[in-house]
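Before drawing any conclusions, I needed to go through one protein's amino acid sequence and its backbone structure tokens, quoted below without any editing.
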Amino acid sequence: TTEDPIIDLKNSGYNIVGVVQTEYMDSHTSVDIRPNQQKSHTNSELESLFHSIKEEGLRSMLKPHLDVADGSWRGMINPENKDEWFRNYTNFIVHYAKMAEDNKVELLAVGTELKSLNGKENRREWENVIDCVREVYSGKITYAANWDDYKNVGFLDLVDVIGIDAYFPLSESKDPSLEELLSGWKKWADELSDWQKIYGKDIVFTEIGYRSTDYAAREPWDYKTDRQINQELQSRCYESVLKAFDDKPWFKGTFFWNWMPYKDAGGRFNTDFTPQNKLAEDVFLSMPEVK
């Protein structure tokens, strides 16, 4: 482990870095979107990070998140004035699109898990969002749909790459084997293969993660439940993703949640999602590079 998290990422076999920037609404019905001084990165911090990523020869994705200060999930946002919300959201995302262009970021997510707002009934609004982004950004764009909602997104024909935050449940078992995990993936991989033909576009898992605990594959999105440490299972879950999609030509890789910007993150007694200083950190070094 070094003092530089970007070098650690590179040394662990990663070739692209997803950078998350979060701004906030006060409640799920609010229309205003703004950075939080304690939680959001500054523009200069983000630009410095992109410079470091480029210096190490890695590619990058910018993935702006919209969170709700009262703890509501972003997928349940229901603004009291939808037109005003979309105007503010467009300003929010265009700001980061300009930053992505200025810093030669290869991939930009124009939204993340906005389940209540990404249906076909709001297609016109999303057409405008994407048009405004493309006016200032020349790289590829994606939309990061939640794993249980990707079929309902009403504008995927307008993006370059389909993104899925892929917390698919794989096994009810406490400590499933690699074979069990691969069996759990088969249903989802077959479903994605069939569905992908509608659009004929590549798919990227814009986010996926597993905690280093028992039952990590049962409800992978569950970050709250107290469970026993199981680094081996986290490592097998990582391996299962890469193996399950290795033969799928439309699958272009995955962004694992999450890598923390300090050298002593994770470790032996940590049960969060990070693979740092755990067995899962080395999975990529023993696997062929994903396409």
Notes: DSSP finds six helices and seven strands in the chain.
